[in-house]
């Protein structure tokens, strides 16, 4: 059974709660935009494309619950909904892109009932388009994966993270579906263990051999020649190709360069942010220190320990071999390639 991370039920959204995986498969039905905002902050749904899709459904739900016939009052109230959703996770570009689309639809609507319907339709469309983008980029990216490859991947970029078939993990699954024999090294991805909990869960379901390693073991395996390529997703790609992704990605990219291992980024075009000249301008989400001092509520460090918790880092474009999107595989100079495919 394919994993359905997010499902629209007409007047509410059903999500698979990723904080409970892999121990339990628990589905939640959310009927209010505030529940959607909390689910994103608490990472019940996470991964940039999935956050964007859920954010769009959040706007639709917010709209459906506004009771007024006045277009002006409706738009004022909808503004509160969009602002709440926009402040949930600052790095994921897909969230900003999706909510911007929803705001444009709201502004162009004639009357309240028509706008409500148009917003629901738009959210469903965003979901379908993002899912299709992951299918296409997975097919394109699979061409880079040769028979016998061992692929190192970081965080979770599969069906759970995209509500489609995945980005980096989509490429890996597609290569397997095309008959290539492959193996995966999955980093555990501290602090929240998306690799250990979610990527291994998805790969096991797909019958793809996977070995779990701690984040700090990546250099050991690359230096031994055990890794044929690294493939990761992205949360935001600046116009020069600098890429924000899960904390630890930058270290993997530097190790890959040092060891002559190709380093691939896979992302839909909705992750590209051409308004930013470079990755220096990407806002990095800072999360609670308790995610570092604790693992699933078990304290690891002495009481009162100070901890830092940047959720993402930026990999400079020069470490990236190619960027795989649904509209093509982009090489340096990224600034030209990204501009050419964005919005086309
Ligand atoms: O903090 P998360 O779990 O939302 O971070 C997810 C990632 O960094 C993914 O690599 C990225 O969103 C791409 S998912 C297809």
Helix fraction, binned, reads 40-55%
Structural class: alpha/beta
- Report the β-strand fraction as a percent range: 15-25%
Hetero groups: 5-S-methyl-1-O-phosphono-5-thio-D-ribulose
In short:
With 344 residues, the protein is α/β, with parallel strands linked by helices. The protein has helices at 33-41, 48-64, 71-86, 93-108, 112-142, 159-162, 168-177, 194-205, 218-223, 249-258, 290-293, 334-341; strands at 6-8, 13-16, 27-30, 150-153, 183-187, 210-213, 229-232, 236-238, 243-246, 263-266, 272-273, 294-295, 298-299, 312-315, 322-325, 328-330. Strand 1 and strand 2 (13-16) form a beta hairpin.
Characterise the protein shown here.
The chain is α/β, with parallel strands linked by helices. Helices cover 42% and strands 16% of the residues. The chain has 12 helices and 16 strands. The radius of gyration is 20 Å and the shape is globular. The mean pLDDT is 97. It binds 5-S-methyl-1-O-phosphono-5-thio-D-ribulose. 5-S-methyl-1-O-phosphono-5-thio-D-ribulose binds next to helix 2, helix 6 and strand 9.
